[in-house]
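User: For this week's homework, look closely at the record that follows, marking any run of repeated tokens, and judge whether sequence predicts the tokens.
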Amino acid sequence: MPPTATLAPALPETGWPPPYLLYLGNAPDHLAAKTARGLAQWRPQWCVGQFRGPDCRTTLGLPDMGFEEAVAAGANTMIVGVANAGGRMDAGTVQDVVAALDAGMNIASGLHQRLSSHPAIVEAAGRNGRCLFDARQPPPLAVGNGARRAGRRLLTVGTDCSVGKMYATLAIERELQARGVRADFRATGQTGIFVAGAGVPIDAVVADFISGAAEWISPAREDGGWDLIEGQGSLFHPSYAGVSLGLLHGSQADALVLCHEPGRAHMRGLPHYPVPDLKACLEANLQAARLTNPDVIAVGVAANTSHAPDAETAARQCREIEDALGLPCEDPVRTGTARIVDRLQSCFAD
């Protein structure tokens, strides 16, 4: 069941005004457009269409639009919704951004290479009176201190990158809110920041400040609610384990949800590294989290079964994970997270 739009805030707090045109450019595959896809999935009421280049290999199922057509349809901002290794804009993307600015849209991007680093983009924004928004611009931060703070926090962790940590966190937020529980999604990646309208781009934070960023995004709270912190990377991914560890320490999580894609053969982008054993991965995350919260527990597994051929296969994959770990396992998109939240609430019933 797709997420409903009723829980979305009316406007993003950070200022990139909807409605949006989602830019896919020449994305070569599904994952290359994950930022645009996340917005289309979780905030469909903000999205009027998509722009695809001639070599684009994916679609969001939204109307294809040119830049002037999108403005006529009400688009205020074009979101550069692609992700690539290194997070850079090629010459074609820069040209398209300039054309979108000339058509009258603001531009928001989650790439590492900032819009403001391109003179042609800056000049086009100036001559058209348009605004540029870079989601990967972290706020001023302090180093983490590990001091105990009030409130409850849940962190999603993963066996690998791109296994559905943001989707799982948002689905848990939706389930808790539907039960009348105060719960807030805390975004740590560019897609999550666009969905939430606020957050900290954890992979753009200087290493010494990663745990401090997690503390900043989930400060002490006294209302009995939950901060639901979007995980990043994996402790078992040689490229991104440092970000994962910093989040585990700074989040001071009370609960972890392990995210996994059944059937994935190797770590994303690293065919020479196999996906870790689920038990070993979960225990490593718990052990790391105990540095700042010795009482942390695991409450469930979110399985990304999007590559399963049918619902029966997906259900079997979840049952096998449940048998292996003794935790409820659900696909947040296919079936929701009711059983994971049941476990969470039963473990923290005070």
